[in-house]
Design goal:
With 259 residues, the chain is an alpha+beta fold. The protein is built from 5 helices and 15 strands.
Length: 259
Amino acid sequence: APTGGETKALAEAIEAKHGAPVALVDATRLTEGDKLVVVGGDGTVLEAARRAAPKGIPILGINKGRLGYMTSLEVDELDLIDKIMQGEYYFDTRSMLDIELRHNGKPLYVSCALNDAVVSNGSIAKIVDMQLKADDKIVGNYRADGLIVSTPSGSTAYSLSAGGPIVSPDVDSILATPVCSHSFFNRSILFNANEKISVTNNGKSELNVSIDGRRIAALSFGEECTVSVSSKKLKILTFSKDNMFTTLFKKMRIMEDVK
């Protein structure tokens, strides 16, 4: 979490009330811990998730952003943190993706994502050519603004805005959703979690690859981005047994009220 004044005050309050050691760390220096409290919006949670999941550290998100879909608490619900000390909480386990950029079969970049990997032309409004494969078998060639490959958690993010379905986290799968496809083949495809999905740049333009909303690399002609379900899982600490649909619709109603 950012080590600002409010975050520091929260850490000091928890430590004073419960005598539990609380350390403030930047996400880039995350090494170990029993639980990670993340203060911020969904972007902050996504960044923390990529670092916490490989270490098996569960996270508790406190929303200081707008939607805060991935967070478990609002800033006016901090008293619920007491339940951690009493063991009155649950874990919501979410699947993640392993992502690799390859050129001539050689890896260029490796990362993981909680929500999605997006191959697109970036900020320029221009249709690009891509080929989608599953286990090295061609699914289709796309002329579109981009392709989103997501987890069930990510189905409620960019993919949902692009017209994709909402997928329950209990469904082991990978979702591929085209963005503004310039063809009749413009529907999302739900793949088995055991399949390896790849997106290849078939056009002359250099494409961008974004992971969980952050641009991480360029994809040149012939290069591919491969996506598979990771062995790493993220544990989200929560105090409610509400399913994802209850949480999503509640958050969406809050956003409508703000408008």
